[in-house]
């Protein structure tokens, strides 16, 4: 439940920050439309997950109503992964202007793959490099969207 609440709050912050940018229209989207939509989607998915967890909780039987059940939280690392995930995204966002989009997105993807459990560095490096290069060509070369170049000037 903690992860669902944390993701909902993260989505709400993303949505709130996106409202500071011009949203535009669906035919001429502004720079805030995509983060706004992703924030709303994250909030909806987190709320759905929270409702699912709430409805799936164990129901007390007739003999258990006298004393409240002892709840022992699972120690499976899910909450830690969510917090690490959000921390990596926040760090990448903070370093975006300094490092530039290409390097920041490469490092972001590399770190997120490690957080999500991809332990082979050559696989994580290949996926991160491929995603950074493809995103650079799609957004900078093809769509001509000016992204921060950082000190690499790439």
Description:
It is a single chain. This protein has helices at 2-18, 33-55, 78-94, 96-99, 101-115, 121-142. With 154 residues, it is an all-alpha fold. It folds into two domains: 1-60; 75-154, no CATH class. Helix 1 runs antiparallel to helix 2 and helix 5 runs antiparallel to helix 6 (121-142).
Residues in helices, as a percent range: 55-70%
| Measured distance between first and last alpha carbons | 41 Å
Number of domains: 2
What does the largest sheet look like? none
Helix and strand string, N-terminal first? Answer: HHHHHH
Count every helix, treating DSSP H or I runs of 4 or more residues as helices: 6
How many E strands? 0
Helix- and strand-based class? Answer: mainly alpha
Shape descriptor: globular
Strand proportion, as a percent range, falls in under 5%
Oligomer: single chain
- Round the Cα radius of gyration to an integer and report it: 20 Å
* Poorly predicted ranges: none
Kindly report the average pLDDT value. Answer: 85
Overview features:
single chain; 154 residues; 64% helix
Which helices and strands, and how do they pair?
Layout: H1 2-18, H2 33-55, H3 78-94, H4 96-99, H5 101-115, H6 121-142
Question: In short, what is this structure?
Answer:
By secondary structure, the protein is an all-alpha fold.
């Amino acid at each position: 439940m903690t992860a669902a609440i944390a993701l909902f709050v993260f989505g709400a912050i993303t949505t709130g920050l996106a409202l500071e940018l011009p949203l535009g229209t669906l035919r001429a989207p502004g720079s805030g439309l995509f983060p706004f939509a992703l924030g709303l989607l994250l909030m909806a998915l987190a709320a759905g997950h929270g409702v699912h967890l709430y409805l799936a909780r164990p129901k007390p039987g007739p003999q258990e109503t006298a004393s409240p059940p002892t709840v022992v939280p699972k120690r499976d690392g899910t909450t830690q992964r969510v917090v690490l995930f959000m921390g990596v995204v926040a760090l990448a966002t903070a370093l975006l202007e300094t490092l530039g989009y290409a390097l920041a997105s490469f490092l972001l993807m590399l770190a997120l793959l490690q957080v999500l459990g991809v332990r082979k560095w050559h696989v994580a490096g290949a996926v991160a490099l491929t995603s950074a290069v493809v995103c650079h060509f799609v957004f900078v070369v093809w769509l001509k969207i000016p992204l921060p170049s950082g000190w690499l000037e790439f």
